[in-house]
Each structure stands twice: as structure tokens, then as C-alpha cells.
Specification:
Helix content is 77%, strand content 0%. By secondary structure, it is mainly α.
Length: 264
């Protein structure tokens, strides 16, 4: 294993998210089971426990948002330790297939917990918190993602050794020019067209919000009270989607206008 400050912090955050998430999952399980035969006073106590689960959910989402750039920085910091790796792609090749699975799962986990928080927020805005049991159950089902994420971090960083690996300079050839000259996808975004990071993030969050809105609408079904209570928020979310999509489009056009930063 190659360990530095970034790798140590990445692993620490993953284990922290797993620890607090597991504790909250235990509380969420008790809420889901207890609501099936809860009296008025018992439901009030469960609502207090639910706020704890909600708080931990926001903390978990915070760690998931932080995990992706930190994971990326960890990979970049390991480039000098992997002879033959001239960019992030070389490090990923050295840790394949665990590196690709780890990166992909981080995006899946962030999307899943983002959706959970969306439902949690809407549920708390609706009178009587009608989805408290369902949202608690979903939290329990999502916690295994944290376990697998931490495990993949350990396997990926643990499997890395100072080896010579085929990097982008060998795998890819430059036969096209301009924005279509992708070559190494990591180099393409990170060094040539960095504004695309903003484009991807803006479009991804906008698409995620649209998906979560659709799922919430389907879940609320014919619950007119819930639709009435959450309707103002849904309109604001739609506005945010439009703004994010506009920002992404602006950044894309700006990057096309500026061209490749590597040629500046």
C-alpha cells in the first residue's frame, strides 16, 4: 500500500461515514419497525429519533460530496509513486479493476443519498411526516453502500504498488484536433478543458433533481395533502434545475470559445 496524507484522510472519512451511518441505520430500523404499532406518545419519541437519522443523513451526504474530490486528489498525489503513470489514468490502471469500481460507486452513493435527502426534506415539509417509515427503511438499505465504498477504498489503495503501468501516452493516440481530441479522458477534462468539470457538475445535479422530483411525485401518488404542502418547494426545485442547466450550458459555450488551455 502507498500511503500519504490524502490517502489517509480519504480512508478516515470513509470509515467515519460508515460508523455514523451504521449507528443511524440502527435507529432508522427501530423507527420503521416501531411505527407499525406506535401510539401517539411513541410516535413522538420516534420523530425525535428520526431527526437524528436526518441529521446523520446530511452529514453522510457531506462526506460523499467531499469524498469524490478528495479521492481524485489522492489519485493525483499517487502519480509520482507509480512509475510510468503520467496522469490519473496511470494510477487507475495500476489499481484496476478496483479503482474503476471505487470511483463509480462513489458517484452512485452520492446520487442515492442525495435522493434520500430530497425525500427526507420533502417529508419534513409535509404535514405529519407521512414518509417517515419509508424514508427510515430506505436509509437502512443505503448503508451497505457505505460499507462497500470503504472496502473498495481499502482494496484499491492496498493493492497499489510502485509498478510500471501503461498510461494515457501509450493507450491513446491523438488523431483528432480541437474539442473532439479527447485522448486520455482525465487529461482532456483536467488539463485541456477544465471548465467541463463545471459543465458536468451542473448538468448532473440538474438531472439528479429532476429524477428525484419524478420519484417523489410517483411516491406521493394521490396524497393531495402532501402534494399541496410540497408544491411550492417543487416549483423552486424546477427553477434550480433550469438555472443549473443554464450555468452548465454557459460554461460549455465559454470553454468552446476559449479552446484548449494546454495551447494557451
Amino acid at each position: 500500500m502507498i500511503v500519504n496524507m490524502f490517502v489517509a484522510v480519504d480512508l478516515a472519512i470513509a470509515l467515519f461515514a460508515l460508523a455514523v451511518g451504521s449507528y443511524a441505520a440502527f435507529k432508522a430500523y427501530k423507527i420503521d419497525e416501531g411505527l407499525k404499532a406506535a401510539t401517539g406518545d411513541q410516535r413522538y419519541e420516534m420523530e425525535k429519533d428520526y431527526y437524528l437519522v436526518s441529521t446523520v443523513g446530511w452529514m453522510t451526504m457531506g462526506t460523499r460530496i467531499l469524498a469524490i474530490p478528495l479521492f481524485w486528489l489522492s489519485v493525483i498525489s499517487l502519480i509520482p509513486a507509480v512509475p510510468g503513470a503520467m496522469c490519473e489514468f496511470g494510477v487507475f490502471q495500476a489499481g484496476a479493476p478496483w479503482s474503476w469500481a471505487d470511483l463509480g460507486l462513489k458517484f452512485v452513493t452520492m446520487f442515492a443519498f442525495g435522493g434520500w435527502l430530497f425525500f427526507d426534506f420533502m417529508n419534513r415539509k409535509a404535514k405529519g411526516s407521512p414518509f417517515m417509515g419509508s424514508v427510515s427503511r430506505w436509509f437502512v438499505l443505503l448503508v451497505p453502500l457505505l460499507f462497500v465504498d470503504a472496502l473498495l477504498d481499502l482494496v484499491f489503495f492496498g493493492a497499489l504498488k510502485p509498478l510500471v503501468v501503461p498510461c494515457c501516452m501509450v493507450v491513446y493516440s491523438n488523431t483528432a484536433t480541437g474539442l473532439f481530441n479527447i485522448g486520455c479522458p482525465f487529461c482532456f477534462i483536467t488539463y485541456k478543458y477544465p471548465l467541463l468539470w463545471g459543465v458536468i457538475a451542473a448538468y448532473a445535479v440538474s438531472a439528479g433533481l429532476l429524477v428525484w422530483c419524478f420519484l417523489f411525485q410517483r411516491s406521493s401518488g394521490k396524497m393531495s395533502d402532501v402534494r399541496r404542502d410540497t408544491s411550492p418547494l417543487m416549483k423552486k426545485v424546477m427553477l434550480v434545475c433550469i438555472v443549473l442547466a443554464s450555468v452548465g450550458t454557459f460554461l460549455l459555450l465559454l470553454q468552446i470559445g476559449l479552446g484548449s488551455f494546454s495551447n494557451v
